[in-house]
Amino acid sequence: MLVNSDQIIEALIETIQMVAFSLLFSAVLGLPLGILLVVTRKGHLLENLPVFNVINGIINIFRSVPFIILMVAIIPVTRLIVGTSIGTAAAVVPLVFYAGPYIARLIENSLLEVDPGVLEAAQAMGATPAQIIFKFLIPEALSSLVLAFTIATIGLVGASAMAGAVGGGGLGDLAITYGYQRFDTMVMIITVGILVVMVQGLQTFGNILSKRIRRR
Amino acid sequence: MIEFQNLKKVYNSGGQQVAALNGIDLTINRGEIFGVIGFSGAGKSSLIRCVNWLEQPTSGRVIVDGYDLTALSAKEIREVKRNIGMVFQHFNLLNSKTVFANVAMPLFLAKVPKEEIKKRVGELLEFVGLSDKANNYPDQLSGGQKQRIGIARALATQPSILLCDEATSALDPQTTSSILDLLKKINREYNITILIITHEMAVIREICDRVAVIEAGKIIEEGTVFDVFSSPKTETARNFVSSVMNDQIPDSIKEIVEKNAGLQKIFRINFIGNSAGQPLLSQLAKKFDIHVNVLFGNITELQGTPFGNLIVEFQGAESEINRALMFISQEKVTVKEVKAHAS
Fold it and tell me: From CA B10, how far away is CA B55, in angstroms rounded?
């Protein structure tokens, strides 16, 4: 085998870092966008069609660019933010551009599942729009939101492996440079194996957490 | 008190203007239980939703406890809403929160201190008879229990008005009657004005003081429950009344009437109030030379007053029958001849 266990652990840590940071930033970006997508639509709490249409359109544009192209296309932006376009930190930028809009869509879906009757009851109680969003809409959707974030995290694990291909580091990088380009099958098997375990673990954790929230 | 003045609501559905409310003038007095009945699509839902501004009327006024909602800001309307509780057909409870948290919600939003919330919610759960369910979640409750929680929540901020939007339509008959008893108790003990909309005439008969019949966005009939039930004026009201009063002449009797058309004298006699307790028919048979044959009859209680409905045949000389009818008309009853092909 061309790599030692230290290199594998280092790559694993890089992957976890990439996923964790990009999840954090894309949640910060996606959560408000997802909420806005719901409350500004026609007939909803804060109906505002221009805002809805702009957000909706922008999200669609980002969602339609394949990640591998997005990564290259926004290199100038990445340089502007991180100072370089290579390395783990630099990979986080395209990952956020990729996962942020994705999370916004997932959150939109979860929030739309909430029974409109509950929001009506909130309005009847004289709740302000902010109270309706944070005391009714989000708590009612929480269990479904956890599942949405699980999907997003797993999506990020996959995308972060791709980011590795352009010098982002992590397990993907290892698999491409050693497993693919230098025909080291063992490295390929180990990295893919680790990714499979990560995804299984994340999904199981998400399922359990979501179930806990639904039925405390 | 709730006052609607020339209230109109027009929806724009696919380029077409649909008038849900077409000039409603209605006053609901303080402390009464007022029912609005109508078929689906008649506008009753829009009407009740205008009271707490879940829907904004296109024109006209809604005056709640002296506040003209059309003249208030969004913030002021939220304040007025604290004084209006609402109970929904599908309960609309938060499934992610316990029964306690659900009932506490309006108090929490009103920034009531925690200790006070705890005390008040305890009282409310006691009032609706579900103290033991405080820590349960709504999906662990039956429909009737959920509605009790909905009612407790609606009462949390001690409103002066309670709106019931088809509050019993999703419940079975037994649960319906226990919920109606609870509403009656609320009205009696707290003197809360209750506005109920429903398509079930039984609900109106059970608890309302006054009733309005709504059709095509207009109030077509309005009066005390007793008046509307005992002498409905419009076709729609008659239909609703007969849905619970069973005052239709049975087909088999109609057949007899038709067969002997012209030979028999058949009358419908309606007894109201105390007159239902008088032995009117036996008096007739004794005083006049006629035989009385009862074909059909029932007595219903309306707001604690008996209301009787009898279909009788008078046999005898025409002059005697006419004298008997004269006698009846002096009593507190109404009499109407039943003709063939009529009901």
Answer: 11
